[in-house]
């Protein structure tokens, strides 16, 4: 699948290289395509060696809930209902299947997908940030119990010992994590590292080797730091792969400063309570840039609405068990509580002199008067609200960045309750930047000295809040772009510079946040 998608997206690059070859020039350096990825009507991705997940966007010839289209594999009708997602199971490994969506007037869309070959790796190595400049956790998952698995790390890219015993070099066997993680999910924390140091590592699974590197966090007194942010990576790993390639390319221009951490504003996958979607979308090993990105930059995420959604319908649970797989794959040490007792996903951490606060706005309880679930997490009586005020109070004087999936300010889908209760605290304690998700576009609205930035172009199908022509009205006061994107934030003692870019590096938006003079009001 990756080969097919990159064939169509990369043919101009191939043609350019051929022309240069015949002209006697060296080939051009490969860069991620700048053009937008256009989501297909019918899409399919391998979830394993025996399952393919499919999605369908109805059009005028097939509109839900009166959809009359049938999903057909070969000659077998898989479903005739109005679902927009389907899990095709019981398939043969390493086999290509053709799917067709057939309406009253014939075939309206078709796609092919190939199941994965039988392989031991399920999720390639990825990094977990521990809010500690002296440690980093590496995690990976296998399809079954391997004969052996181990990890090796060093400050030397060739893994050579510098004479005698070197504390920066290690090789130890690894077992299943002791936190109750199941299904061959391995976790190893590398300790006693120096801050702001590049570490190279290799993970061995049977005869296979997976390489990566990371940079340990700077000291908490570091005056200058950089970090990345993006979100809404669900549904289309091809598009996510383009964004990941763009971030990797930006890091490669200055790795000493830019190989740091990346914030994710939520909505990692389409159905976060169905584990197969983590396999077919976010951790899909068919997409090289995503896997290399996750293996070189630790991701710090916010719980998104789709992380508490179950296949086949969007049904967020009200019993507090939402986000189980999010907790499973990101067992962050900064969390205030843990499963099975945890009902919230909020925490804070420091990176240099920047203090980050990650909030959980989602409904966890039923309001009997209203008849639907409400976000108790944002109300002043909630534990999160009290924790937030205390955390803000204790970290005054630092750069303050808040991340939350539900937007306080955005062209659409802004949450009035979250805004009503959280905004006064942000104003009172001088929050500098609020990173938001949920909406599949880029937007920025500056309100009372705080920049509210929606980062929702990480892979989901882009959609404008203005369906007529996709463009904001003349009276819209914010910044808007319907493009896949990511943000890099460069921080120094005087200012925070936010650069929002397309995967190809083209600028979408750049703005600065100046630090208030000590003792003055924002």
UniProtKB/TrEMBL annotation:
UniProt-annotated stretches for the region Disordered: 145-167
InterPro entries hit by this protein: Calcineurin-like_PHP, FN3_dom, Metallo-depent_PP-like, PAPs-like, PAPs_N, Purple_acid_Pase-like_N
Pfam families noted in UniProt: Metallophos, Pur_ac_phosph_N
Gene3D superfamilies: 3.60.21.10, Purple acid phosphatase-like, N-terminal
Keywords: Signal
PROSITE patterns: PROKAR_LIPOPROTEIN (PS51257)
Residue ranges occupied by any Fibronectin type-III domain in the UniProt entry: 36-108, 117-212
GO molecular function: acid phosphatase activity; metal ion binding
Bias-annotated ranges (Polar residues): 145-157
PANTHER family: ACID PHOSPHATASE RELATED, PURPLE ACID PHOSPHATASE
Protein name, per record: Fibronectin type-III domain-containing protein
């Amino acid at each position: 699948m990756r080969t097919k998608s990159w064939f169509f997206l990369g043919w101009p690059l191939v043609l350019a290289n051929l022309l240069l070859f015949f002209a006697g020039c060296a080939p051009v350096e490969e860069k991620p395509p700048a053009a937008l990825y256009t989501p297909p009507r019918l899409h399919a991705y391998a979830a394993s060696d025996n399952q393919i997940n499919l999605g369908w966007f109805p059009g005028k010839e097939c509109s839900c809930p009166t959809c009359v289209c049938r999903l057909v594999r070969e000659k077998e009708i898989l479903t005739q209902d109005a679902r927009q997602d389907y899990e095709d199971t019981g398939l043969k490994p390493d086999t290509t299947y053709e799917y067709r969506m057939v309406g009253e007037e014939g075939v309206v869309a078709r796609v092919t997908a190939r199941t994965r070959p039988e392989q031991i790796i399920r999720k390639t190595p990825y990094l977990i940030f521990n809010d500690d400049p002296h440690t980093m956790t590496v995690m990976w998952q296998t399809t079954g119990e391997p004969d052996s698995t181990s990890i090796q790390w060093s400050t030397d890219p060739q893994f050579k010992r510098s004479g005698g015993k070197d504390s920066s070099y290690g090789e130890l066997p690894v077992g299943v994590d002791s936190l109750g993680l199941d299904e061959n999910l391995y976790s190893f924390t590398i300790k006693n590292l120096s801050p702001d140091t590049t570490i190279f590592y290799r993970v061995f699974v049977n005869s296979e080797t997976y390489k990566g590197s990371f940079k340990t966090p700077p000291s908490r007194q570091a005056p200058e730091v950089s970090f990345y942010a993006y979100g809404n990576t669900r549904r289309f790993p091809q598009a996510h792969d383009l964004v990941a390639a763009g971030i990797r390319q930006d890091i490669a221009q200055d790795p000493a400063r830019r190989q740091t951490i990346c914030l994710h504003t939520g909505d990692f996958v389409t159905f976060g309570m169905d584990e197969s979607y983590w396999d077919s979308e976010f951790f899909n090993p068919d997409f090289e840039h995503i896997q290399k990105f996750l293996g070189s930059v630790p991701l710090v995420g916010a719980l998104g609405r789709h992380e508490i959604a179950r296949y086949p319908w969007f049904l967020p649970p009200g019993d507090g068990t939402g986000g189980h797989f999010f907790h499973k794959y990101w067992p962050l040490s900064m969390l205030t509580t843990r499963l099975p007792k945890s009902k919230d996903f909020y925490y804070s951490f420091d990176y240099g002199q920047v203090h980050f606060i990650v909030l959980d706005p989602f409904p966890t309880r039923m309001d009997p008067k209203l008849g639907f679930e409400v976000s108790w997490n944002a109300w002043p009586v909630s534990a999160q609200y009290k924790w937030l005020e205390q955390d803000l109070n204790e970290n005054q004087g630092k750069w303050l960045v808040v991340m939350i999936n539900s937007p306080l300010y955005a062209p659409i889908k802004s949450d009035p309750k979250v805004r009503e209760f959280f905004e006064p605290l942000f104003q009172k304690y001088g929050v500098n930047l609020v990173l938001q998700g949920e909406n599949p576009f880029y937007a920025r609205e500056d309100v009372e000295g705080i920049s509210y930035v929606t980062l929702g172009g990480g892979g989901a199908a882009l959609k404008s809040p203005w369906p007529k022509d996709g463009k904001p009205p003349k009276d819209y006061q914010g910044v808007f772009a319907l493009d896949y994107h990511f943000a890099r934030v460069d921080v120094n003692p005087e200012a925070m510079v936010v650069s929002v870019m397309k995967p190809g590096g083209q600028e979408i938006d750049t703005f600065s946040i100046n630090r208030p003079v000590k003792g003055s009001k924002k």
